[in-house]
Amino acid sequence: MNSLTKLKVSVFMGISVDGFIARPDGDISWLDETEPLENGEDAGYGELFASIDALVMGRGSFEKVLEFDWPYESKPVIVLSKSLAEVPEVLRERVRIDASAPQELVEQLSQQGHKHIYLDGGKVVLSFLREGLVDEITLTSIPVLIGDGLPLFGYLEKDIKLRLLETRSWKNGFVQSKYQVLR
What we know:
alpha/beta
């Protein structure tokens, strides 16, 4: 749990073997083009989703999710953006836009009683990592090389050490590693 607050911050991302979360244009269709997991398994996403109080995502991730049926019915979503003006009418009670810095947002959410948030979107994840706010990272490596795209991780001013908590693999080639971020 984050030492600065009572709030746990988790990352749960699918990533190509060559380290990308999306194609250069944001396309993530390659995620759906892989062989599915057996017996409807979700690689632990359902368990994580049940444990969180809210999602924090960037504008790009939010706009991508708007292309699908809204998957976050039961959880509040905070979209970090300085450029997004408004949320579609049907989502206004569940989604809010916030331009706060990561530390400020974590403090606000903690004061509001949130205990566990999930981050989505490469820029958001990187900004929270840079401020030392991420507690756990779960990466599921998808057996595909897409050659170019948006990396999950970018430039960091210093090394961030991780402790491997567990690794799982599936017959379809998914390999998932869960890490604790060390401070």
